């Protein structure tokens, strides 16, 4: 019953790339872990969910725990989120739910699912593997709110997100999926600077873009935040780099100090990934022809793309993450995958002392000035029109279930997952008239 409700509601993970939740839950697990770490600096959406929807989330966690037949239900959050922890503990106590709270230290990336599995259970997910291989399923706290709503017959039609940075009124927004970023910025009072760049997501793993790109962006099921910032900051420098520039600089400037490896969170939990070796390999390789089935190149496939290596570790301002991403793309084109083995995995002894405080990320990225902004107010908005992409999740794009001229209500099915394909259905987020159907579906509100 619950799995059918999750499927019908079109729920995907709110905290990552949008993996269809029903597929993840079609299993049994020893641990059901809720990611409530709000991993990326500046984002406050999960804080708001914990503070204002604790009871709903706890009810959903208990229900999913039963579905998974999990022995341990754990909410993993940061120990200094005292207000949020108090709200969760109150809800747990009042409902008598068999849920514990695991208090993590304040480091980045505390919300990486494999790092979180290690923190909570002491187990290392195999390289190239997923948490269920060590008996764990992980979901984001905001996904729990969507599951609660699915239990009430409500599909995923709206999204909570943070808009902050160089805006007049930073706040939490609740908007229909498909709402333009322009509308979101207007709801925050507009930008405080004329020429800006933006981050769709968090400072470390979000997607960057220029002011010229901004108007083309819309809110999707996985949009966690919008950060407006000065155009010439460190992140924009990363955006400007092209692959030949990155490779040439790496070849001439890498000093093989190993800091990119020592601070890599996947290396720290025992994975055989060594970014400095990948960088060294560039000096003897004809790019891209020689990127092939080579054990060192294949280490790049283990990169979680957290960005610590380039934002914090490298003293030469090189970009190991971007190099790893490039290598991963070349290997994928050749159909080369990481081959698992049974070699023992040993976490590093210095891991506890090498964790990166989020404030260091903000300092390096030029975002420290926004760290203390109050982002607590919720603003609900109903857009006059929406442009809903048919692909906003891992898997195949949805197929249109409507056509131009159709009248739809909020929650009506407008995009259907292809049969036997990985994906999630998509629903109308406003009531109105369908005016365009292509790679996305445009709906104009009735009365406009």
From TrEMBL:
- InterPro entries (alphabetical): 4Fe4S_Fe-S-bd (IPR017896), 4Fe4S_Fe_S_CS (IPR017900), Helical_ferredxn (IPR009051), Ion_transpt_RnfC/RsxC (IPR010208), Nuo51_FMN-bd (IPR011538), Nuo51_FMN-bd_sf (IPR037225), PduS (IPR017054), RnfC_N (IPR026902)
- Per the record, the domain of life is Bacteria
According to the entry, every stretch annotated as the 4Fe-4S ferredoxin-type domain falls at: 243-274, 293-324
Ordered alphabetically, the record's keywords are: 4Fe-4S, Electron transport, Iron, Iron-sulfur, Metal-binding, Repeat, Transport
Keyword Ribonucleoprotein on this protein? no
Q: Which Gene3D superfamilies match?
A: 3.10.20.600, Alpha-helical ferredoxin, NADH-ubiquinone oxidoreductase 51kDa subunit
Show the PANTHER family listed in the entry.
ION-TRANSLOCATING OXIDOREDUCTASE COMPLEX SUBUNIT C
Record-given protein name: SLBB domain-containing protein
């Amino acid at each position: 019953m619950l799995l059918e409700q999750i499927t019908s509601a079109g729920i995907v993970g709110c905290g990552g790339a949008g993996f269809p939740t029903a597929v993840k839950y079609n299993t049994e697990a020893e641990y059901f872990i809720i990611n409530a770490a709000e991993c990326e600096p500046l984002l406050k959406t999960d804080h708001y969910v914990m503070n204002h929807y604790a009871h709903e989330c706890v009810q959903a966690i208990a229900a999913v725990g039963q579905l998974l037949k999990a022995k341990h239900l754990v909410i993993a959050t940061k120990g200094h989120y005292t207000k949020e922890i108090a709200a969760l503990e109150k809800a747990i106590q009042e409902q008598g739910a068999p849920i514990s709270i695991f208090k993590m230290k304040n480091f980045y990336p505390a919300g990486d699912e494999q790092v979180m599995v290690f923190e909570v259970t002491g187990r290392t997910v195999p390289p190239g593997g997923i948490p269920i291989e060590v008996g764990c399923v992980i979901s984001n706290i905001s996904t729990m709110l969507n599951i609660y709503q699915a239990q009430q017959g409500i599909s995923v039609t709206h999204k909570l997100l943070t808009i902050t940075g160089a805006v007049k009124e930073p706040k939490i927004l609740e908007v229909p999926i498909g709402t333009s970023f322009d509308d979101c910025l207007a709801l925050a009072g507009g930008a405080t600077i004329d020429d800006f760049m933006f981050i769709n997501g968090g400072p470390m793993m979000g997607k960057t873009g220029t002011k010229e790109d901004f108007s083309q962006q819309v809110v999707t099921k996985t949009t966690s935040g919008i950060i407006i910032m000065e155009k010439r900051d460190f992140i924009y420098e990363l955006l400007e780099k092209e692959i030949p520039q990155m490779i040439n600089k790496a070849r001439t400037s890498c000093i093989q100090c190993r800091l990119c490896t020592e601070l890599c969170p996947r290396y720290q939990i025992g994975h055989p990934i060594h970014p400095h070796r990948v960088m060294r390999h560039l000096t003897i390789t004809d790019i891209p022809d020689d990127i092939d089935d080579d054990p060192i190149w294949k280490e790049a496939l283990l990169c979680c793309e957290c960005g610590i290596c380039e934002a914090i570790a490298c003293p030469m301002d090189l970009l190991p993450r971007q190099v790893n991403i490039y290598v991963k793309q070349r290997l994928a084109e050749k159909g080369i995958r990481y081959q698992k083995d049974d070699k023992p995995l040993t976490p590093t002894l210095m891991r506890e002392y090498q964790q990166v405080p989020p404030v260091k990320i903000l300092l390096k990225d030029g975002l420290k000035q926004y760290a203390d902004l109050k982002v607590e107010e919720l603003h609900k908005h109903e857009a006059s029109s929406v442009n809903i992409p048919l692909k906003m999740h891992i898997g195949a794009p949805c197929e249109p279930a409507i056509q131009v001229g159709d009248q739809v209500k909020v929650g009506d099915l407008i995009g259907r997952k292809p049969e036997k394909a990985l994906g999630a259905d998509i629903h109308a987020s406003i009531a109105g008239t369908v005016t365009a159907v292509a790679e996305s579906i445009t709906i104009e509100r009735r009365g406009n």
